[in-house]
């Protein structure tokens, strides 16, 4: 899916289920912050 979206970044989270923000907030939250900052700069 990421290949079809311009400037997309696929982040794989091994062994994390559907509640990724609850299961691994230390990984997910920085990714979300980075995404929000990136779209704010465009």
What distinguishing features does this structure have?
single chain; 42 residues; mainly alpha; flat
Q: How would you describe this protein?
A:
The chain has 42 residues and is mainly α. The protein has one domain (12-41). The chain contains two helices and no strands. It is flat. The two termini are 22 Å apart.
Which SSEs are present, and which pair or pack?
Blueprint: H1 20-23, H2 25-41
For the termini, the CA-CA separation is 22 Å
Largest sheet at a glance?
A: none
**Mean pLDDT level:** 89
- Residue windows where pLDDT falls under 50 for at least 5 positions: none
Elements, N to C (H/E): HH
Oligomeric description of these chains: single chain
**C-alpha Rg (nearest Å):** 12 Å
Query: Which percent range describes the beta-strand content?
Result: under 5%
What is the tally of beta strands? 0
Structural class: mainly alpha
Percent range of helical residues: 40-55%
Shape: flat
Total domain count: 1
Count of alpha/pi helices: 2
